[in-house]
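Follow-up to my post from last week.
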Amino acid sequence: MSTTAPPAASPLPATGASAARAPGSRLRHWLPPLLAGLLLLVTAAGVLWLNWRGEVSHRMEVQVADTLWVKQSLEFQLRHHEETLRELATGWRQGRVGPTEFAAKARSMLATNHELVRIALYDGDGQAVAIEETRALDAGAIETELSTYARRRGSELYAGPNDIGGQQLLTLAVPAVGKREGTLVLEASLDGLLQEVVPWWFARNNEVALANSFGDPLAVRRATSPARGNYRHQTPLEMPGVALTLVTDSTEDTPRLLPSLMSASVVGLSLTLLASLVLLWRDNTRRADAERRLSEQLSFRQAMDNSLMTGLRARDLSGRVTYVNPAFCKMVGYAPEELLGRSWPMPYHDPERDRVSRARFAQVLDGTLPASEFESVFVHRDGRRVHVLIHEAPLIDARGRRTGWMSSVHDITERRRVEELSRQQQEKLQATARLVTMGEVASTLSHELNQPLSAITAYATGCLNLVPEDEGDGEFSLRSTLEKIQRQAARAGQIIRSVHDFVRRREPAKTRCRIEEVIDATLPLVQMQARKLGIAVETRIAAELPTIDADPVMLEQVLLNLARNAMEAMAPMPAPRRKLEIAAEPRDAGIELAVVDHGPGIAPADAERLFTPFFSTKAEGMGMGLNICRTAIEFHRGRIWHEATAGGGTTFRFTLQP
Ligand code: ADP
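User reply:
Got it. Predicted complex:
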């Protein structure tokens, strides 16, 4: 049975909540965007790295090109000096240049080229002819030696660099070979070379050094800031006789990984995407968790609702039903859809309680219904009346406003039935007590009446003896009257004895007895009632019946009970059916007795409860008779049952062991 959400009460879904998504399916759901995000991030990182690498190698190429440019400038400067010296050498050889011309030229060279510190002219014997220098230098020996080598070689030759006067000096010798021999020697300072030749725009951002073949720097021109070693290049200078290396080292840093706005925005975008994915994931996980908790709570509430024995019904302020639980539906036999949205009178309304019910509904409408318990009656769909105990409580919403009424309904029909049964049993017990007292009275009465009856019989016999034999035998003769008195007194005595025997309290005592005698002893009491109800009594006793070991008084009680029930059942029947039969016949070495009536028979619904104590369909019935009969028969190891009499009525049968 499904339930519907009460708008005022805590909401319940009309159908079961969807189950929380499994972790596997959640992962599958998230995998594509996650992979796309990661791919984007990797691509962005790759693009940035390639970009960075490109920039670094481009910068390195620039460094190499600049270094080569500086190298060429240095070499060009030295070639230029070589050329000038060669011109002078040619002039010297041809005699056009004498010491004076040389000195003038040398001075002009020293003045315009600050890297040059000394220019000397040696004759063919290695004697200095003229020397021009910016300051006095002790370079004679080196120059003489180099001159010799240069003349021998027949071409210009470099030497050094040598530390002369605290300076690293490069020596160049250009020989003049011919009519007048000699050598022109030039000393150039390495520091000066770097200062003069390396352009300022390069020197500003690069440390430029000249190093020997071991890599030791001999002259360094420092930049405005320290070199970093990121862009460093070295290249040998091409000079005959000297191995010098030009080393450049930039002060620049390597480019940053995120140099451009675009790269930054790509990274930013990727990070934002990833962050939003993570946030979305977390949000989704939280949502799934909440969904799972909600679904668990709902299942729990559903289970609770289904197992609840108390009926619940919610009504809004206009008295319309907004919620009913399964227990309530079961109580009244209607489905929720038949009740929801309906107002007074409801389908289970009891017309007999119209006035009370209408007054209570009016209280619901004007909100004056007291929050207390009261009893009422619902009519189940199958017509059954259901006694209920209702507790009404106001429904308050989250803002503290009253939005309707919630009733909890308990089915107290069973409780009421038990109470009624107990009341009836109480009454029956009281009736039993009265009957017991009556039995006591009957016992005393029969005992007391026995003597006068015996006296009457004795006196009648005495009188008979006194009456002469021939007194006459007319109907109203003394003798016949006395004989009738005697017979009636004897019969009364017999009845009294039967009553006495029947009601006398005693322990069960088995003796060997004959069933015919038991039946005979019962008959007077049976016939007494039979006459009153106009019922014919018939006995059918088989000839050869075994004697039995039994308590005759108990058996009489059984027979009397069965006969009385049979006669009461037949009382309302038409005269031809009012016939009671008591039969006895042998059965399996024992005896089977039958009490047969032609009454209305026993309804199948009552059949199985017949022997239950206090079960009776009669207004004054005790419901103990058949129960006592069964106890008595079982005491005799027999069995008692009933069956329908052919042609209508009931036959009670019981067996007795020999
Ligand atoms: P009581 O006679 O006080 O009602 P019993 O135990 O003797 O109690 O009988 C129980 C019920 O069995 C009776 O109320 C009656 O409805 C049913 N009953 C017993 N005997 C017969 C019968 N012969 N025919 C129809 N109903 C019978």
